[in-house]
Automatic annotation (TrEMBL), chain A:
PROSITE patterns: ABC_TRANSPORTER_2. This is Monosaccharide ABC transporter ATP-binding protein (CUT2 family). One of its GO terms (molecular function) is ATP hydrolysis activity. It holds the Pfam family ABC_tran. Residues 16-252 form the ABC transporter domain. InterPro entries: AAA+_ATPase, ABC_carbohydrate_import_ATPase, ABC_transporter-like_ATP-bd, P-loop_NTPase. Keywords: ATP-binding, Nucleotide-binding. It comes from Kribbella voronezhensis. The keyword Signal does not apply. SUPFAM superfamilies: P-loop containing nucleoside triphosphate hydrolases (SSF52540).
């Protein structure tokens, strides 16, 4: 497995698009007719209230759940993802909130867990360590040593290791589920820098976050989910965070605000 | 074996090398436990333990208690030698924060991306929390910070201490940064324009070292210049010298954010560059233009070359006015290298008086995007010395 950087692809197109994706858990309609496009070299933030369907959507793309309805086009071809392993093979990498690192293993072992490099019958530790360093250097990661147990790393460094691991399979899409939750400011900064670096490598990044400041700092577009449905896609450079928050909370289009707007219109025309 | 012999290859020189290695590791990664130092340096645990003991006695490192893996551990950090200095340098889309020792050696620094058009409160809040976080990582606290140098990419009125002309960096309009920061941190704040700070940084440690009359051209989201006269940064009567971005290039040109017409910024500022590519390339960021231009994208190359030419014309005016020896080109767009330097040089040669153009040397910046924050720390150091000399005025 090589860790050479993907050159920043010039002339970027849509890598992943979802059409009419729906998912139901018993009586709960978790996702309804979701449309989503992700382009290469772009950070798409996925935001929404609790229970809006963000995690369900991520898990559907990652192959943890299968959608009841709808289609998914990856790299120009329609695909069906039956399991997380299939998604990974396609080139969709996911870093879940719990990171899924083994605390007692060192950084190299974590990066190559389940896909160890072999030299004949024995593990090729030298090559694994060398390419681990190379990968972490490309990400400008501040990791003191690749031979210390992951348990002794800070939250931001652990996140870095988890993201680095997701890059080993040469993915085209990387999904980060709440990467800055429960991190300090300096560590948040580290992760945000990392997101920018992924974007520069020409990857499509789907970032889930509750923190508006983080989203506005690194995202190119923001897709809002509300109650399992699309509630607008915003281009960050043309939007204020208030508008996005309004879309998240539904302040833009509820019955009360519509009635109020109607009333002011009527009063305006009557006077 | 004679341990005291200082010849190369001897035990003494080996010891010296190991000492340097331990210090180097701590310098690079911040505070570490001895086990981590051993892992990162490749030295044995016993050697590291000896070295740390020695360095502690010599006062070069500080030890503090901590917990790693649920066990008690001793954290080794570089000794800050009393007061710390802090530098905060804002860009249009990010803030870089650094903490340095009294001898101006950087102990920790961090870059944080920010929203475009962020508001001052939000920016200062994040900077203050980053500073507190960084101070903690070097084994100190916010109260150990003696002075803060603070840079903004906007004109700074040194008389009133307020940031911004009305339209440049709108989120910071009329904010008195020193007062507002005092609400977050107790240390005194000195405020300056980031182009001036970068000039100061390059003057002390980079491409302007030893230069008497020079100029730092900051070519980033906007264009600014820090002017060095007689080996000192020249700020003018109210701190706004070097605002090259608002030189009038075309009197009938588009309206600038500052309210005038046809400023240089309206042709080479990030907004102008991005909007000229919007139709053909879609929404981009400044960094995208540079990476694509370097990868050979013709449209992006053209935009950067044109910008270089425009700035060259303005710089020619600067060269005619004060005849500098060296012009250092820094900022985000300087990363495009020759793509920008060559057209800049051509325009400069064409438009400046030949004798002045022939003597001026165009150099790329040496400190990259760290120049601003290094300058901020220089400024903080000057401030803390000035206050130490006048202890009567220490109330803030």
């Amino acid at each position: 497995m090589t860790v050479t950087p993907t050159p920043a692809t010039v002339g970027t197109g849509t890598v992943l698009s979802l059409r009419g994706v729906s998912k139901r858990f018993g009586a709960v309609q978790a996702l309804k007719n979701i449309e989503l496009d992700v382009r290469a070299g772009e950070v798409l933030a996925l935001v929404g209230d609790n229970g809006a369907g963000k995690s369900t959507l991520v898990k559907t793309i990652a192959g943890v759940y299968t959608a009841d309805d709808g289609s998914m086009v990856f790299d120009g071809a329609e695909v069906r993802v039956g399991s997380p392993a299939e998604a990974q093979q396609l080139g969709i990498a996911t870093v879940f909130q719990d990171l899924a690192l083994c605390d007692n293993l060192d950084v190299v072992a974590n990066l190559y867990l389940g896909r160890e490099l072999r030299n004949g019958k024995v593990l090729d530790e030298v090559e694994m360590e060398r390419s681990s360093w190379e990968l972490l250097r490309q990400l400008s990661a501040k990791i003191p040593s690749v031979r210390i147990p992951v348990a002794s790393l800070s939250g931001g460094q652990r996140q870095t290791v988890a993201i680095a691991r997701s890059l080993l399979g040469q993915p085209k899409v990387v999904m980060l589920d709440e990467p800055t939750a429960a991190l300090g400011v300096a560590q948040t900064a580290e992760v945000l820098n990392l997101v920018e670096r992924l974007r520069e490598r020409g990857l499509a990044v789907i970032l889930i976050s509750h923190n508006m400041a983080d989203v506005m700092a690194v995202a190119d577009r923001v897709a809002v989910l509300r109650l399992g449905r699309n509630n607008g896609v915003f281009t960050v450079s043309e939007t204020k965070s208030q508008d996005i928050i309004a879309a998240i909370t539904g302040a833009t289009d509820n019955a009360v605000s519509e009635r109020a707007a109607r009333r002011t219109r009527q009063e305006g025309s009557a006077s | 074996m004679n341990a005291t012999r200082p010849a190369p290859g001897s035990q003494a020189s080996l010891r010296e090398a190991n000492r340097e290695r331990v210090l180097g590791v701590v310098r690079q990664h911040g505070p570490l436990t001895q086990v981590e130092i051993a892992a990162a340096s490749g030295l044995s645990a016993a050697t590291v333990s000896n070295m740390v003991k020695e360095l502690d006695q010599a006062g070069l490192v500080g030890l503090s208690r901590s917990i790693r893996n649920g066990r008690r551990a001793v954290l080794v950090s570089l000794a800050s030698g009393g007061g710390l200095l802090a530098g905060v340098a804002f860009g249009e889309r990010d803030v870089r924060v650094a903490i340095a020792s009294e001898s101006r050696e950087i102990l920790a620094q961090q870059l944080m991306p920010l929203q475009a058009d962020h508001v001052a409160d939000d920016g200062m809040e994040r900077a203050a929390r980053l500073l507190a976080d960084l101070a903690e990582t070097v084994g100190a606290g916010v109260e150990d910070i003696g002075a803060i140098g603070f840079g903004l990419p906007a004109p700074v009125d040194s008389v009133s201490g307020q940031a911004g002309s009305d339209a440049v960096l709108p989120g910071w309009r009329g904010v008195n940064v020193a007062e507002a920061m005092a609400g977050h941190l107790r240390a005194p704040v000195v405020l300056d324009n980031t182009a001036n700070l970068a000039a100061l940084g390059e003057l002390r440690a980079g491409a302007l070292r030893g230069v008497q009359h020079g100029c730092y051209l900051k070519f980033s989201y906007g264009v600014g210049a820090g002017i060095v006269l007689g080996g000192e940064v020249f700020r003018g009567s109210a701190g706004t010298a070097g605002e090259i971005g608002h030189l009038t290039i075309d009197e009938n040109g588009p309206i600038c954010r500052c309210g005038n017409r046809g400023c240089l910024d309206t042709f080479v500022g990030s907004r102008a560059l991005l909007s000229s590519l919007a139709a053909s390339h879609g929404p981009l960021r400044l960094r995208d233009i540079i990476t694509r231009a370097l990868a050979g994208d013709l449209g992006c190359r053209r935009v950067i070359e044109d910008a270089g030419r425009r700035v060259g014309v303005a710089v020619a005016g600067l060269v005619n006015l004060f005849n500098p020896e060296v012009i250092v080109v820094g900022g985000k767009l300087a990363e495009a290298g020759d793509l920008i330097m060559v057209p800049l040089r051509e325009a400069l040669d064409r438009c400046a008086i030949p004798s002045a153009a022939a003597t001026v040397e165009l150099r790329p910046a040496e400190l990259g995007d760290e120049a601003d924050v290094l300058g901020a720390i220089e400024l903080a150091s000057v401030l803390s010395h000035a206050r130490a000399a006048k202890p009567a005025e220490t109330t803030v």
